[in-house]
Specification:
about 325 residues; alpha/beta; 8 helices; 13 strands; globular
Amino acid sequence: MRRYGKNPDEDDIRVRPNRKGNRPRTNIRPKHADAAEGFVLTVDRGRLTVLVEDRTIHAMKARELGRKGVVVGDRVAVVGDLTGAKDTLARIVRVEERVSVLRRTADDDDPFERVVVANADQLAIVTALADPEPRPRLIDRCLVAAYDAGLEPLLVLTKSDLAPADTLLESYGTLGVRYVVTSREELADGAAADRVRERLTGRTTAFVGHSGVGKTTLVNALVAKDRQRATGHVNAVTGRGRHTTTSALALPLPDGDGWLIDTPGVRSFGLHHVDPARVVLAFPDLVPGTEGCPRACGHDEPECALDQWVADGHADPARLYSLRRLLATRERREGD
């Protein structure tokens, strides 16, 4: 049976659509030259809040980005409705080259990296001196992650009214890590926030710390009241805090001169991704001594040239000990 007449023309013939698309495939992607610049403030289940000029908009990742992730701190190019009006949604079409990337893994044997924040230049490691007790192994791991990412670490010690800071600070003296010691009274009257804020001016600082150390309370003291986050308390039985910050969020300092990125509380900081060669760059007095090291040296091996470098008087032995102590945290869990 004939479906068409004796003389069918092109209009009579039905063309079945190509399931893979009628347009030919191409590697050419639109350049989006007219895209606006944006700064990612937070990410929530695929929806991103982006600052474009003085407006906060909601956006989603464009399909053309593929599996490339977008994280808090990213500088992005955005197209679409940029008014920030209710129920509008823009598209992120490009992620600009990152200056720095702070990464962690779930554990040391986990090969999958998780990007915590992008484009930060400072890492504030917040820890309480008591209630809960400080965890030096976790501090060491955060320091290693900071050095690996090229971030300058800042140690923020809270609750000094409950325990002295001298013993903990002594163990980090040879590293030359900057620090700020605060008490609960100083936090209440604003003195603590003023001292910490001095270290944040003109910088993008990521805040990390395990739950219960007062990180969110400190963050709330540093930002405007309408930007403050919910806080929790320490469990009297377990000595652990309850997670109140569930997603990273970038917050501007009140004077507009700097950004603070609050991250969720962590109970582990895996270092599977860390390259010892990048960590040693944070020790400029030891870097020249690595020239004689064997290839892929972990700097804690018998053939490591740093031993002779220190023995010849080029660097303080305590500095080499500190480097190796940090590198050793990759093989030791925080509770060991």
